[in-house]
Amino acid sequence: MICKSCGDEVDRLVRVRVGRKTHKLCEECAELKREELEIADDAEAAMREMMEYKGR
Disulfide engineering: 29 pairs with which of 9, 12, 14, 25, CB 3.0-4.6 Å? Predict the structure, then answer.
């Protein structure tokens, strides 16, 4: 199987949900994508707090 992110051939792919889409990635790319999503969520939360956003 081939990873959609890096293009490497791997034995097993992991499914990672990004928004509404599910991506099939190798374990290394999946871990990086999860970290990126976590950082993005933290950044959004910090921005909302700075702007004193009360919705959501």
Answer: 25
Q: Are 35 and 15 a contacting pair, CB within 8 Å?
A: no
Please provide the DSSP assignment of 12-32 as one string. Answer: --EEEEETTEEEEE-HHHHHH
Q: Which domain holds residue 51?
A: 1-56
Helix (H, G, I), strand (E, B) or coil at 35: helix
Low-confidence ranges of the chain (pLDDT < 70): 53-56
Q: Which residues contact 34 (CB under 8 A, 6 or more apart)?
A: 16
Structural domain count, the chain: 1
Is the full-model pTM beyond 0.90?
Answer: no
